[in-house]
Amino acid sequence: MTVVLYPGSFDPIHNGHVEIVETAARLFDRVVVASVRNPQKGQPLFSLEDRQELIGEALAHLDNVEVTMFSSLVVDLARDVEADFIVKGLRAVSDFESELQMAQMNRRISGVDTLFIPTTSSYSFLASKLIREIARFGGNIDSMVPSCVAERLKERYPL
Ligand code: ADP
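# adenosine-5'-diphosphate complex -> structure
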């Protein structure tokens, strides 16, 4: 049984993330999706609890996926959930440099390896930060996020 951990901020989860989880769920026996409070990303739009709820709803169609949250090191969570690998999505070359450094550091401090899943071109431009900005100014994000996220963003930013 191969278990993988997919960590991220997911503020909020979008279709690029969903696609990575769907691929991981096909390739591996169990996928643990974990949202983290990332101090480098500033004040989040959604609380960790809200993000976890939205991730759960967005991935409810996948029965080998579970959702959790954490505020520790990714490698400590990987050990706690007995993950064989960490999984990360890659959008473009720009993701690669920082993700490679993170993967090498995580391997050095814990021995856990990171596997990269490339996104399809139709989702490679998606980023939670852009979605938050578009939603804030009333732009249409319906085709970029799961419907539960679109609804929640509309509640947050009523026209
Ligand atoms: P974002 O950059 O959208 O705020 P996160 O920090 O939550 O995303 O990213 C969590 C993981 O999802 C990272 O591995 C990141 O590379 C990956 N990811 C983010 N956006 C996409 C996308 N559009 N396609 C594939 N993977 C993505």
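# post-check
The helical segments are 15-27, 48-58, 74-80, 93-110, 128-136, 147-156.
Residues 48 and 91 are 24 Å apart (CA to CA).
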